[in-house]
Amino acid sequence: MRQAHDSVAVRRRNLGLVLRHMADNGPCARTEIAAATGLSHASVTTMVADLVARGLVSEDGVLHGGGRGRPRRLLRMIPRRAATIAVQISSEQLRVAVADLAGTIVWRDAAPHRGAAGVPAALADAVAAAVRRANTAAPPDAELVRVAVAMAGPIGDDEAQTVLAAPDFGWLRSVRLRALIAARLPELTCPIEVINDANAATLAEYHAHPARPRGVVYIAAGTGIGGGVVLDGRIHTGSHGIAGEPGHMPVAIDGPPCVCGARGCLVGYAGPEAVLTAAGLGEVLRRDGLGPAADRLAEALARRDERALAAVDIAGRALGTVILSITSLLDLDEVVLGGVLAQWFPWLGPVIRHQFSGRRALVPTAEPEVTPALLGADAALLGVIEFARRAALSDPATVPRRHHS
Ligand SMILES: [Zn+2]
Question: Are residues 28 and 88 in the same domain?
């Protein structure tokens, strides 16, 4: 019995191996898949027949291999056979997208959810409504295989994917957001996953980074300050699933009290609220929201307003301190600043770099490279699409067979 169970699991895993190879490398022949995956040619043939029966792969061409040997049949993935829905929850709105297995967005929408954020059940209502709208917009012949939701706040590595806290939403206790959303979507047959929004954004920025670095530290300011660490191409989640949260790293032992209960956290110096308040734009932030207030700060910086420059100087020194702590410990040299930190980067960057000077006694050449994020407000949404896509590609058996092979 155990053996039968194992062989089903192995077959599912091998199906995923074969489909992922096609997704990553484009149209190819069976022999190439066998060579790349280490599966036998017979096994690849079986897996391909299964994927064809599920409508995920077509065999629609002939590849002539340099005049020698038999022509090989060319296999290609059919991205539109399956769809994923990605939702990004931010403090002001829900972004939602439908994507195919190539990661191409086929539909997207954004809607504000003012008032819902503070109440988990109300937020789950809004997410469920967004997923339903997206599902209606998905191509009718595509199988919905995965819903992935990016949420601000640390996510536990438990089965329930519990949101441990979301201080920026006023959630100071853990919330089983995934279960709340699933209960509102009983008609949904595919898995729902909740991941940290900054981890999703880190993954997207890592893939977009032109240097293809070994590792990336991502620090982004939006509602508060989030972030992530990617090591060797994978998100480093840590012992409890909550690694890469720089917002509440201590900058000063006796600094100002923080919403988290500690003192002197990074967010108290470099968080949007702290920076904008110090720059005299706290009222604009409360009245008009983050986007307009952040724009006003950029304008003030451009005309070299003294209060604005002083606020960014404090933020830059605090960021430099935290970046030195992180990169010194992990020996990572690529730091990407996202959210409003990317917008303010022309002024923040020099302050941060100045903070590094003279701090490299052991390895003088090892200075972290700090760059602004490339993907803007879309980073988390693109990352959660990629996360859902990888999960779907790894388990093609979630797409039913259309006919018997
Ligand atoms: Zn804190």
Answer: no
